[in-house]
Design goal:
The protein contains 17 helices and 14 strands. By secondary structure, it is of the alpha/beta class.
Amino acid sequence: METILLEDIIKAGQALKGIINKTPLQRNDILSEKYNCNVYLKREDLQVVRSFKIRGAYNLIQSIPSAELINGVVCASAGNHAQGVAYSCKNLGIPGRIYMPITTPRQKISQVKRFGGNFVEVVLTGDTFDDAFYEAKVHCDAENKYFIHPFDDPLVIAGQGTIALEILNALESPVDYIFGAIGGGGMMSGVGTYIRCLSPKTQIIGVEPLGACCMKQSLDKNEVVTLDKIDKFVDGAAVKRVGDLTFEICRNVLDDVIVVSEGKVCTTILELYNDSAIVAEPAGALSIAALDTYKDKIEGKTVVCIISGGNNDIERTPEIKERSLLDQGLKHYFIINFPQRPGALKEFVVDILGPNDDITRFEYTQVNNKEKGPTLVGIELTQKEDYQILISKMDKKGFQYTIINENPELFDLLI
């Protein structure tokens, strides 16, 4: 199996000069104070295509002999790699066919078309990256085109590794910790390779979403595993299977892989925007969402978090807020059987809800010839401690209820 050398990353850095942005490494005062350390953010959300993916895509495509590019290139992507390939195709004058999941946010699809112009064709297929990947490979083999892998390719990994090159060049003091997202593993393979060579004492921490933690499971089992089902919310890191090459590299260069919930990611997205005016996509917020897990270890240290992308669709904001509230224990849904009589709702509002509790959803079902009617009720709390008070009041008053938050199937069906 091929490996990645320090020289490969340095060479990639030369190839990318004049093509990519040398993104800022900024100390974040709010996070530094919160965690009592020096937190620096590597702002790949400010990259040419608002993500790091341009680094690997361009490094690979520019290295391919022109004779092999006659029929063009093909890629599969949940969004960011597609934009990197599209930009590269237009810049190098190469035709490209890009396969993306149907579930890809519209903002990312529009960006791909904008960056690629007349040089690229976008094909939407399947529900996940893995579905799109399969279709892309079938077309690539049938039409004899060059496949640009989003992560499991030495030149792609080397390109992503230039992030670490810029980090070490920008900081005079040693880096104690680097946190970065893992989807297929390309970025942290490249970053980890460079850091391990030049700053061996630095702790390299990968971060995955709970609903798609294939690298964590692969490392735990010491073999590449394929997940049966994934949560697609963190679309930039929602893959069912990491790369064979990236797995081998990551298990040699990473010190740890942390898993964080999608809700925690949403809370981080909102905090980054509200506190620092940074627009991070879900995968881009993973590195910062992991800091709570390492809070005790990073105190007094120099920490770098890679914000891997900023392609966040504003239309997703309601869902982001909802997931954040649920994760913090501030949003709860119930099916409550209200007595079918006048004043039943008023009794609930006056006797059950606290002064700061808010009903955010109320769907009452009138049932003929029955004493009680099931009602879907959503309640938002000011602090999570109020939840037990709410439950105690309903029990004391004899309200019959079902907690939807504790029933995933019912939650997916109704909410």
